[in-house]
Design brief:
By secondary structure, the chain is mainly β. The protein has no helices and nine strands. The strands form two sheets. Strands 1, 2, 4, 5, 6, 7 and 9 form a seven-stranded antiparallel sheet that branches. Strands 3-8 form a two-stranded antiparallel sheet.
Length: about 150
Amino acid sequence: MSLILDLQNIALGKATQNQPENSHLPSALAVDGNSHTSLSRGSCTETGCCTPLPWWRVDFGSTALIYSINVTSRGDCCGNRLSDFNVRVGDSNVGRGENNTLCQQNIAVPQGQTSTFICNPPMYGRYLYVQTNIEKRLPLCEVEVYGETFMKRC
């Protein structure tokens, strides 16, 4: 017997990134449901040029069980920018999320492409972080997080 889950994109409309005042566009553009890969079309976000070790975060608002993440990179230029990054999941919102568990590390998405990353085993946490390992801009055109959220009981 196999279990088939009908997972939803639980990141839609939920995001923050470091130093948004130094960013080209709001972080929420990476979770707007539009995966167009051109920054000028208004569907991508990118941290500013002088942001040291940038990160981007989804706050699910409550505990989530994360199975997989789809990440879409810019297609209009800068193909090497979305490389050497980590995905972390956990309950800590301190710093760059470095206290959270690694789902994937040292990964990359080719220019204009979407790549899927699996958390194996699935991971629990309120936050999902995308964090670079080197100093450069962090461009994201769309981030889809597939999993389940759990409501807190009073």
